[in-house]
Every structure is written in structure tokens, then in C-alpha cells.
Amino acid sequence: MTADIRKHSAAPRRAARAPGVRLLAALVLAIGCLGGGGAVQGQEPAARPDPQHPGMEAMNVADFLQRPDYQSLLNELVTRHKFDRAQLEGWFGQSRVYRKVQDKFDSPAEAKPYAEYRNIFISQRVKDLGRQYLEDHRELLAEVHRRTGVEPTVVAAIMGIETKFGNVRGGYRAFDALNSAFALHPTRQEFFRKELIEYLLLCREEGQDPFAYDGSYAGALGMPQFMPSSFRRYAVDFDGDGQRDIWTSNADVAGSIGNYLSRHGWRSGEPLALEVELSPEQAQRFNLGHKERFPLQRLLSVGVTLPPFAPAGPTSSVAVVSYDESDGRTRYFVLFNNFFSIMRYNVSVNYAMVAKELDDFFEGLT
Hints:
Blueprint lengths: L21 H13 L13 E2 L7 E4 L7 H12 L5 H10 L1 E2 L1 H8 L7 H8 L2 H13 L1 H11 L3 H12 L8 E2 H11 L4 H18 L7 E2 L12 H7 L15 H14 L9 E4 L3 H7 L2 E7 H6 L15 E8 L5 E6 L1 H9 L3 H15 L3
Helix pairs in contact: 1-3, 5-16, 6-8, 7-12, 8-16, 9-10, 10-11, 15-16
């Protein structure tokens, strides 16, 4: 997804198509400009109660459109991507900005210690849902495996983390979420500028207006939680009905997850990560984090033993990470290529480790 910025507690759905209210949006924008020229960069317009989200307040994007960053965005959409400026101003004029989105970015789940993080995603309910998912979609997942090389249990692990197999719904219109992040998240503004452009291109390609899709607070889409750029590149029409439906088509969802991982180097049959015992000296030498990779042979040459696993080859590039359990024990893991493929889905080591744990559990069911 992908998605290095994504929320894993919201599964979006298709939203009702919003009416095109260009005239009203243009009038709102004109009134805003007459009343002071709209918000300038560095100033924030007043928030108002939002009827779509009781108890939440929102600002209108129309109040931001005179800022240089929004003017630059609109200019690029018009000149490079051939959008109609009046139509763009109508769409943006109807969109909302939520301060709560910025608050969520300020406290990401991925920053938690792993012992806390895993409890967000690994529960008996997720395990039960995964067991049923694997049973209900056995033939589909076998076909995904055949075409992409990605094992059914891995697809199930991603589904469990992202949206609890489609059981957790998104809380924002995707266009609102992306605008909120672009307007209020300065350290990632360039990323969300790109995703806003990708999103509008996606809507044009799919024949939808920008209010057609719901998403997470970060603008991630569908059951696999693809960012717009990932949707455009990796979502597939696996069931052959002419649409890439990652909201309701189990075939398109599973096929798109498999396609994403396959396109990011997945190797069928190889492990994600294996737990090992390290002496203090070995830990000091090898426990260097996921970015420090080295040939597996280096570990084997100093007597580190690994549990049985599908051959990855002694020249395979690996890394070692550790985390502390709630009881104070330190556990060490050797990370293999497929672990890094999942980190292309989400750049958190915690996320990939949860995927490994769920994959192990689901694998034990077969």
C-alpha cells in the first residue's frame, strides 16, 4: 500500500457519488476571497461542526485555495494533467480538512514498542476470521499463489492487519483525507501532494468523481489499503469483470495484494523471518537493524543455528533485529528477502513482524 503512510484500522468502502455543485463551490470560494482572500500559508481558517462526522470539526478546502501550495497544485493539474480548472475548484471547494487527521499522524501506532503494537492486530477474532477466510477462498487463493507466487497465508495476514478481512470500515472520504494531510502535515506535504494528483488521475481513469471513494485517515483505499499511487500501479482486475474493485471483490483484493508483493521481489517458498539465539557477542556484532544487511553465511560461519526452513541460500542477504517482550526477554530474528518485500507494503518493521506472526499462525492451520 503503499504506502509508507497508511492507517491500519480503517477499511474504506465505495462512497455515494457526491453531486457536482460547481456553482455553489465557486460562490463559496468567491465569498471567501472577498472576505479576506482565504487562508494564507501559515494561517489556519476557523473550523466548523461537520455534519458528516458528529462531534468533529472541519475546515473547508475553499478557505485554503489561495495559498501558494494549493495554487501550485492546481496549476500542475491543469497544465500537466489537463484537468479543467473550474471543475477542480468545484471539487476542492466541496472538500473538507480535518485537524483530527493531523493528530493521528502525530501518534502513529508504528511508534509503539512491538509488544504493544502486536496486540492491536493479533487477536483471537483476527485468527478466527483468518481461518474462515482461508477456508472460504481456498481455490481463489491457490490461483493467486499460482499466478504471483505469494502464499495464501501471507495474503490472509495482510488482510487481517489492514482491515480485519474487510470488517473495519473507513471513516473519511478519501479526497478529504488527502486534502487534510496535504494542508496540515508539512513534513509529508510533498508525499500527499503526489498522492492527491494520483488520486484525481485514478478517479478519471475509473470514471468516478473525487467523492466516490471512502478511505482511511491517510487516504488509503479498499480492503488492502492501497494509497492512490499503489492502486494505479498494482491493483488488478483478477476476476476479469473489467473493474479493479478492491472494496468488494475478494478476487481483486487478493490478486492485488499478490501482485504488489510479487512486483516487490517476493520469492515463493522462502521464509519471512526466523527466530535465533544469539550470545551477547553475536548480538553486538549482528543485531544492527533492518537496514544493515549481510550474507547469511556470516551468521552460519560463527555457529548461529537456524530452525529448518525452505532454502534461501548462504549468499542470501539478511538482517537481524530484536525486540523486548513484556516480560523483559529479548528475542532475535533473522530477516529474509520476503520480510523486506512486506516492508515495501508498509515500511514499519513492526508491521512486517505482525505479518510474519499471523502467517506462521495461518500456516499452522494447513
